[in-house]
Amino acid sequence: MNTPNESVDLAAIAAQLDRIDRRLDQIERRQRVAAELIEEMTPIATKMMGVGGEQLTDLENRGYFAFAKQMMRIVDNVVTAYDEDDLKQLGDNVVRIVDTVKNVTQPDILAIANEATNAIHDADGAEPKGMMGMLTSTRDKDVKKGMAVMIQVLKHVGRAASSMGKPVGSARQRRLAATLAPRREVPRLPAAVPQAPARPAPAAAAAPAAAAAPPTVTVGGFAMTDEGFLVDHTTWTEDFATQLAAQMNLELTEQHWALIRFVREDYAASGTSPNVRRIGKSSPVSTKELYAMFPAAPAIYAARLAGLPKPAGCI
Amino acid sequence: MQNIVILGAGTGGTMMANKLARTLDLKQWSITVVDRDNVHLYQPGLLLLPFGHYTAKDIVRERAILLPPEVDLVFGEIDRIAPDDNVVALQDGTKLPYDILIVSTGTNIRPEATDGLTGPGWHQNAFDFYTLEGAQKLEHALAEFEGGRVVINVADMPIKCPVAPLEFLFLAEAFFTERGIRDRVEIVYATPLGSAFTKPRASAALGGLLDERGIGVLPNFALSEVDTEAKTLSSYDGRTENYDLLVSVPLHFGSAAIERSEMGDDFGFLPTDKHTLQTVAHPNIFALGDCTNLPTSKAGSVAHFQAEVLVENVLRFIDERPLVPDFDGHANCFIETGYGKGMLIDFNYETEPLPGRFPLPGIGPFRLLEESPVNHWGKLGFKWVYWNMLVAGQELPIDHRMLMAGKWA
């Protein structure tokens, strides 16, 4: 029979366990939610990576990344050429600058400029005029209007030029004067922006791995890489081995041929040329005999004579 | 009730167990995983442990926790596989019959296979970092090293993580520089290959890196023996080099169980189809990871990409549908280059590591065949991905095939 104290303790413990149980339930539910999210998102993420990858490949092929890299250089040049003060002045005057551009590009102004340009284009057709010719043209309505416009322009330019010479009162006018004053020398941007290549330029390679390298050494009509290996291992013949050996001042014995046969069979079966360890263990030639035949780098010589690619690791 | 038995609860086995437990009808199929111990080691961490970056606690977890509860985890040493009887026999007498067998027993170093390597100086002046014990002992040796000739040697190929020796060179160079004793240390790489970098693009991009950091290279060094008392290592062509500290990557072999079963090649690796991952000799036996004889790198990423193909092929095998030859030898490896930077390479059977951006063209964020801090952070961050996503059989948004997207041909 429980004492009253024990009963109270048990009840309290039971209640505590209940709370813990509910807590665990909550945690388990949340954990399940998180796990499900990961499971759901993974194939989606994989797909996104695939699509993202394709789009980015397209951008790369079209030269976007190489271009962006060159743009950084342009920005770099600009940033280094102009300093804070320059930019401050630019900021102070930007409204005036934009206003000027705005005025210059008003449709009617542009029309005038266009007309003037056309006239210059047609300059060929313009007959040279003497003094009398000039006088008669001033009677032309359009010429009279043009002269009036030019005189107005001259007036404004003259006024602005005069005010440059005077000592100016306000800071704003001083700044204006400084803006219109001759600039100090700034380094020009390079005349030609480096061309963004269609693809990033490949790194210089000693010899391409996959495709046949341009052969520079030949053995009796066989194409070789510039390291002295047969370009296409399927073109190997015993004659090749004999000729190559002769170039190495080497006469091929039965043992050499046994080695060559083993190496070729092994390559056909496994896709790689056997190394010293494998030759010593599995071929008719022991390691000692191998080094007697080729005192240095024997696996490489064996591969060469057997017309196989140069043995390589993964990197 | 049919049985799938998975040998090995490492990277490959754990991924397969998790993926199959989710895809198979567990009322029809039972999944059993066999391993000799409960210690799942994050092997990439072994590279950083000797330099004090990780401790054992950081890179070890219980295998049991990483496997799904629906899977039967059996501890024991495998005696042999009897493929004609479709049974795996353990050394304690247990017999595990299977309808489908997945071999994921990996590869291990056998330093004793090189004359003299495990002599009196083994783990005194000559170390491996491919085991937890070796890496820990090397950590002490490096911390106490005051100067002399450090030789990193690869006995011969294949090895797992073929870039690890290169990473060790870079990390060691940075380690001694940061300790201020770089001028008292000579670092040399003795490799059985013709050069440190054997692929044209990688060679062009990185060839100068070793020179710049004053790391010497001894190429075509086919290790014949080590004398740990005289502190020398010799190659078959008669060269003998002395060392003060030898960091050895010893000869690798496949599992002894495979050798006992007479199913492996001369070094105990399982002949496997390059693209379907079905073993060559037995249609109901599949293999993935380091235990195969496939001509691609032995690396965790390879096992990951293989697992995606293998799950599909196991399901097809069960349904008696043709297998898909979908594995292309894809490997993707981070390479530590020291000073907080790293590199990334992405390649497969046909294509050597190329420069570019991975995984997204132009954006990356990882740079291929180029040093960058982001690559280093990627390598460090990968540990979380490994424990929580990769071995859990969680799909990652990286295609199992190597893609040319982002690469600069």
How do the helices and strands line up, and which of them pair or pack?
The complex is a heterodimer of chains A (315) and B (409).
Chain A lengths: L3 H58 L2 H18 L2 H21 L2 H15 L9 H7 L3 H25 L5 H10 L36 E3 L2 E3 L13 H10 L6 H17 L5 H7 L4 H7 L4 H8 L10
Antiparallel strand pairs in A: 1-2
Chain B lengths: L1 E6 L3 H13 L5 E7 L3 E3 L3 H4 L11 E3 H4 L5 E4 L2 E5 L4 E4 L4 E3 L2 E4 L3 E3 L16 E2 L4 H13 L3 E7 L9 H15 L6 E6 L9 H13 L2 E4 L4 E5 L4 E4 L4 E3 L2 E5 L2 E3 L1 H5 L24 E3 L12 H19 L12 E8 L2 E7 L8 E5 L3 E5 L4 H18 L19
Parallel strand pairs in B: 1-2, 1-9, 2-5, 9-20, 11-18, 12-13, 12-18, 13-14
Antiparallel strand pairs in B: 3-4, 6-7, 7-8, 10-19, 15-16, 16-17, 21-22, 23-24
Helix pairs in contact in B: 1-8
Rg for CA atoms of chain A: 43 Å
Give the CATH superfamily of the largest domain in chain B. Answer: FAD/NAD(P)-binding domain
Query: How does the overall form of chain A come out from the CA principal axes?
Result: flat
What's the CATH first level of the largest domain in chain A?
Answer: Mainly Alpha
Tally the beta strands of chain B.
Answer: 24
Number of domains as seen in the coordinates of chain A: 4
Helix content of chain A: 55-70%
CATH class of the largest domain in chain B: Alpha Beta
For the biggest β-sheet of chain A, the strand order reads 1-2
Say what the CATH topology of the largest domain in chain A is.
Arc Repressor Mutant, subunit A
Which CATH architecture of the largest domain in chain A would you pick? Orthogonal Bundle
Count of helical regions of chain A: 12
CATH superfamily of the largest domain in chain A: DsrC protein, C-terminal domain
Shape of chain B: globular
Q: Output mean pLDDT of chain B.
A: 96
Oligomer: heterodimer
